[in-house]
Amino acid sequence: MSxxxxxxxFCVFMLFMCAALERHVYVKQxxxxxxxxxxxxxKIAYLTFDDGPSVNTEKVIAILEKEHVPATFxxxxxxxxxxxKDLLCTMVEKGHLLGVHTYCHKSEQIYRSADxxxxxxxxxxxxxxxxxxxKTTVYRFPWGSCNGYLTNICDTIVEExxxxxxxxxxxxxxxxDSVGSPTSSSIMRNIEKDFKKYNEPVIxxxxxxxNTVTVDTLPAIIKRLKEEGYQFATLDKRTEVCHYxxx
Length: 247
What we know:
Blueprint (H helix, E strand, L loop, with lengths): L2 H39 L2 E9 L4 H11 L4 E5 L8 H9 L3 E6 L4 H4 L3 H19 L5 E2 L14 H10 L3 E2 L4 E2 L9 H9 L9 E5 L5 H16 L3 E2 L15
Parallel strand pairs: 1-2, 1-7, 1-8, 2-3, 4-5, 6-7
């Protein structure tokens, strides 16, 4: 076979291989896109509770267990006392996610500087790991990431916390259960007006000692979400993080 014919056959072969490869990549990309779309179209609600553990946390856990619903709890380090340690271990065993809220929840201390915030947050993270044996990777700023205290220090905090393996989460639905004098009706109304806007609503509630109305309303909240076809998961399972005014 002449050199020219060999070269021609080789060129035809390479064209065939390139076409096959291109088709393979196209199919793979299409498959990935469809998978991502399926995930996005799933209706999954993320129940989150701030300001525990407290006397109400155990009641919340009992309701969640009865309903077979997992949730995420952002904890206050100072409240992780000796009598709450078994509760935290139970929460982890039941499949709930524990995250960092703050150690002291005092704005003048934690937001004094980026270093002050990070020290407070890591102190809480260490406490959670000490009690449960599990390292947490999620945190939530007290009053959210858009509060005025964070104006000049937020980016630094987020960058430094990410270096340490932590990601912050805000919310896109608020029960407003720590504002004024909430009632079951007001809590349901606040959740109802927003949750259907999202396939993945992140619902802010509180399980502090004062939030008895939240506990009383929780079964109705879960029932309503189930009626609308929502499943439930912890925040670390969400397809993307929830950052207020950023995504």
